[in-house]
From TrEMBL:
This is PD-(D/E)XK endonuclease-like domain-containing protein. Keywords: ATP-binding, DNA damage, DNA repair, Helicase, Hydrolase, Nucleotide-binding. InterPro entries: PDDEXK-like_dom_sf, PDDEXK_AddAB-type. Residues 27-273 form the PD-(D/E)XK endonuclease-like domain. It comes from Paractinoplanes deccanensis. It comes from the Bacteria.
Length: 293
């Protein structure tokens, strides 16, 4: 039976008892927020108005600037993809928020430009990806999933062209194959890309620009299905908690805190009873290694 639609336009399907059950509309980052900390999920996605967040983070500004520069690189015609355009690309969409001072911001800009120069030197300017910052969406029995993949490449595979999921990383530490294998987001992008592009998509790659390294994993049908089940289990937990709160349960009990190393970096640290005990990180703490002593 084809899915039905609610009045709000949210896709629905029939449950076991014949009543329509709403699919859980989500992105990989929404699911990831709940896995990291149910309370942070509640502050971000449930409480309205959204509680006040802390100041912007310099590492987010740096990551966004590099991502946009790469997006705009692929937006150029192939004959204009020359490293000499990188300073203009990076400057024109540079995000300034969160840095300690202008010196630190300049050091981050220089570092980012160096990463980009090294990175594009390894790209074939003639190669057109299947998608750049491409939204892919699909449904499962539980999820109405959508997400924006940094890049989806077309590469030859044993049975014809395949879609390869590429995710850029700009954090301090490098990444390994376990990071690529365990990433729920990358697996869900691959699962969705198979359906959107109607071709195999098993390979997922983390491109770490500061070190110029690539951490890759080849999924199988089984490992993608495992990650989808994991996502569905998370979605069921979230729906159960939201339903309980709607029925009058204590929201603090349904969305418990998960205190740990993430609290120092959490946007809601100041209003969270567990987070306010954590040592605060300066907004520029994750980029301070880029500033010369
Ligand atoms: S401060 Fe820590 S416990 Fe509180 S919401 Fe953020 S991550 Fe969760």
């Amino acid at each position: 039976m084809p899915p039905t639609r609610s009045r709000a336009g949210v896709p629905e399907q029939l449950g076991f008892d014949g009543m329509p059950e709403r699919l859980f509309v989500c992105t990989p980052s929404k699911l990831g927020a709940y896995v990291d900390c149910p309370r942070r999920y509640r502050y971000s996605y449930v409480d309205r108005p959204t509680p006040p967040k802390g100041p912007p983070w310099a590492h987010n500004s740096l990551g966004a600037s590099v991502h946009t520069a790469l997006k705009n690189w692929f937006g150029l015609p192939a004959d204009r993809r020359d490293p000499s355009v990188l300073p203009t690309l990076l400057k024109s969409t540079w995000v300034r928020e969160g840095y300690r001072d202008v010196d630190q911001e300049r050091a981050a800009y220089r570092a980012a430009l160096g990463w980009l120069e090294t990175y594009v030197a390894g790209l074939d300017p003639e190669e057109e990806p299947l998608g750049v910052e491409r939204v892919v969406a699909t449904k499962t029995a539980v999820l109405a999933l959508n997400g924006r993949a940094d890049r989806i490449d077309s590469r030859p595979g044993p049975q014809g062209p395949e879609a390869v999921i590429v995710d850029y990383k700009t954090g301090r530490s490098g990444l390994d194959a376990d990071d690529a294998r365990g990433s729920l987001a990358l697996a869900l992008y691959a699962y969705a890309a198979q359906r959107v592009f109607r071709r195999p998509s098993y390979r997922v790659e983390l491109h770490h620009l500061p070190t110029g390294t690539v951490a890759a994993h080849e999924h199988t049908e089984e490992s993608l299905a495992r990650q989808v089940r994991r996502a569905e289990d998370t979605a069921r937990d979230i729906m159960a908690a939201e339903k309980a709160v709607s029925a009058g349960a204590d929201p603090d009990a349904e969305f418990p805190t998960n205190p740990g190393p993430l609290c120092g970096w959490c946007d809601f640290r100041k209003i969270c009873p567990s987070g306010s005990e954590a040592v605060a990180k300066e907004p520029w703490a994750a980029v301070s290694h880029l500033t010369p002593p």
